[in-house]
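Researcher: We plan to redesign the surface later, but first we want a full-length starting point. Tokens attached.
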């Protein structure tokens, strides 16, 4: 695809935000900085004309930010703060030159002003998660798949939580999976009243890529927890069979498994997994289906 030579998504008296020859950039009072991100972690890099770089950890993929602003929508950081284009520019200007800074520190530029409301936000009832747990209103990338939800409801004794997340061009590879995990966490771990059910910090999560064969591996004879084991062998026994496991995955991945990319995540970043760490085990997977251009987030943690 041919890259645009230069395009702008935002301009005011102080800032210009756009892309030149495919590279995101911002100008602050006439001074230009390029914007990039780490390919394996959510880290925004701000680089000046002399090559000096500032890293804003747990921040944004700038291409995703530009895409959102070009569509007239906002973006939300891991802290829950909603950004329009001006907010993003202010944060970048504040962080630039600090070399290494966390997004929570960079957001001090906003003081204690209340978060903005996004007029594009849909109502909660328009986008339930397939788990039956209602997502927060701003979790607009959560997919409502009624067929999947209906099948999952037939397995009330399952200890696995599922969440379907749209691919909102959050980048590629691990970075895209990280954002999917973030959105699923916001949907599952925070209730309608903005109360935290389980505390989480996705910025602390780490991952490794695993094969599709590993994802659907048989029950481990040594008791090691994997996806199939979590479904068939929870602490409180059920009568589910391999055919039930296959039925659920046929609904989740209706176009087959050839287009799947799988990451297995650590589980020390949220107290959702505390019970499972007692003895049974914990499981955290993100599966990207390129045929449907969506993620399936799979979480499991249980105790007796």
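Model: Full-length starting sequence:
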């Amino acid at each position: 695809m041919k890259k645009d030579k230069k395009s702008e998504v935002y301009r005011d008296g102080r800032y210009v935000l756009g892309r030149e020859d495919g590279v995101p950039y911002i100008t602050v009072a006439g001074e230009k900085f390029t914007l990039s991100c780490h390919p394996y972690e959510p880290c925004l890099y701000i680089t000046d004309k002399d090559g000096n770089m500032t890293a804003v950890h747990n921040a944004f993929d700038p291409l995703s930010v530009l895409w959102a602003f070009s569509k007239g929508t906002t973006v939300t950081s891991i802290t829950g703060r909603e950004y329009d284009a001006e907010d993003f520019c202010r944060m970048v200007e504040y962080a630039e030159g600090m070399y290494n800074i966390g997004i929570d520190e960079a957001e001090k530029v906003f003081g204690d002003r209340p978060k903005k409301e996004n007029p594009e936000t849909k109502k909660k009832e328009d986008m339930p998660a397939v788990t039956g747990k209602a997502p927060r209103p701003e979790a607009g990338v959560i997919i409502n798949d009624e067929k999947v939800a209906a099948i999952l409801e037939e397995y009330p004794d399952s200890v696995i939580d599922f969440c379907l997340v749209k691919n909102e061009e959050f980048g590629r590879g691990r970075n895209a999976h990280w954002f999917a995990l973030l959105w699923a966490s916001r949907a599952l771990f925070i209730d309608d009243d903005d109360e935290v059910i389980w505390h989480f910090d996705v910025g602390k999560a780490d991952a490794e890529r695993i094969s599709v064969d590993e994802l659907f591996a048989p029950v481990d004879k040594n008791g090691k927890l994997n996806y199939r084991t979590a479904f068939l062998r929870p602490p409180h026994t059920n009568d589910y069979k391999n055919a039930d496991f296959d039925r659920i995955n046929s609904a989740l991945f209706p176009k087959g498994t050839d287009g799947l990319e799988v990451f297995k995540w650590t589980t020390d970043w949220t107290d959702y997994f505390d019970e499972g760490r007692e003895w049974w085990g914990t499981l955290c997977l993100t599966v990207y289906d390129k045929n449907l251009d969506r993620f399936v987030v799979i979480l499991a943690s249980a105790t007796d």
